[in-house]
Amino acid sequence: MSVKKAKKIFISIIFVSAAITFGVIYGAKALNIKEEKEVEFEINLSREELEKRTNKEYLIDINLLGEESKEYKKLQDGDKKALKHLVKAAQILEEIQLQLDNSDNIAFREYIIKQAKGGNEDALKTLILFNAQRGMNGIDREAKHIELAKNHHELAGKGFYPSDLSMEEFHAILISMLNQGQTDMVKKILNQRSVVERNGYGLIAIDYTDKFKEEFMEIADELEAAADLSTDTNFNEYLRLQAKALRTANPLLDAYADKKWATLQDTPLEFTITRENYNDQMTKTISSNEQLSNLLAKYGIKPIAKDSLGCRVGIVNKTGTEEILKIKKFLPKMAEMMPLKELYNQSINTEEEAKQTMVDVDLVSMTGDCGAYRGGITIAENLPNNDKLSLTIGGGRRNVYHRQVRNMFTAERNKKKAEAILDPTLHKYYNNEAQHLFTIGHENTHSLGPNSGTERLGKYQSIIEENKADMGSLSFLDMLVKEGLYTNEQKKQIIVSSIVSNYLKAKPTMSQAHRVRSVMQIHYLTKEGAITYNKDGKIVINTDKAVPAAQKMLKEIIEIQLSGDINKAEEFVKDNFVWDKNCEETAEKLRAVDKELNGQTIAPLAKKLLEG
Question: Is the Cβ–Cβ distance between 349 and 403 less than 8 Å?
Answer without folding.
Answer: no
